[in-house]
Amino acid sequence: MLNQIVIVGRLVDKPKVEKLENDGNSRSQITLAVPRSYKNADGEYDTDFVDCILWGGVAENTAEYCQKGDLLGVKGRIQTSTYETESGEKRKSTQVVAEKITFLSSKKEKDNDIDKSSDEDLDM
After folding, report:
1. From CA 26, how far away is CA 58, in angstroms rounded?
2. 20 to 30 A from 88, CA-CA: which of 6, 44, 51, 112?
3. 58 and 76 in contact (C-beta within 8 Å)?
4. DSSP structure class, residue 13
5. What is the DSSP string of 32-74?
6. Is there a contact between 53 and 79 (Cβ–Cβ < 8 Å)?
7. Per-residue pLDDT of the chain (124 residues; tens, 9 = 90+)
C-alpha cells in the first residue's frame, strides 16, 4: 500500500515553530493555497487550503527561510485523525505530514523582479 502526496501551493501565513515540551522536537503547521487545475461554472479557478504538519529540521528551515506568499512543493503522506468538540461532536481532521519541502520561489524575489523591470523601463 502507498500513502504519498505531492502538492504545490503558496503559503497562507508566515510559518511558526513550536518546541514540544516532552521531547524538545520542533513542530510547525502551515497552510498552502493550492489552485485547482480547472475552472468552475463561473470561469474561475477554485482554491483548496491544505494543512501540513512539519517536524524537526524541515519545520525549522521552512520557518527561517519562507514568508507568506512563497511557493512551496511538499512531498509527504496523508494523515487523518479524529477528535471530539467541547459539545461532544466527533470530527475528522486531515493533514499532510511533510517529509520534504522544496522552496520553489519567494514572493520577495517576485516583488524584486517586478521592481527591477520597472526600474529598467524608467532608464530607457
Report:
1. 9
2. 51
3. no
4. S
5. EEEEEEEE-TTS-EEEEEEEEEEEHHHHHHHHHH--TT-EEEE
6. yes
7. 999 999 999 999 999 999 998 888 999 999 999 999 999 999 999 999 999 999 999 999 999 999 999 999 999 999 999 999 999 999 999 999 999 999 998 766 555 554 443 344 433 3
The grid coordinates listed for 37 are: 487545475
Return the biggest CA–CA distance within the chain: 67
CA 54 to chain centre: 10
29 vs 15: CA distance, rounded Å: 7
CATH of 5-123, one of 3.90.226.10, 1.10.1740.10, 3.30.70.20, 2.40.50.140: 2.40.50.140
Grid cell, residue 113, equals 523582479
Cα angle at 32 between 26 and 38, to 5 degrees?
155
For residues 54 and 32, the answer to whether their CB atoms sit within 8 Å is no
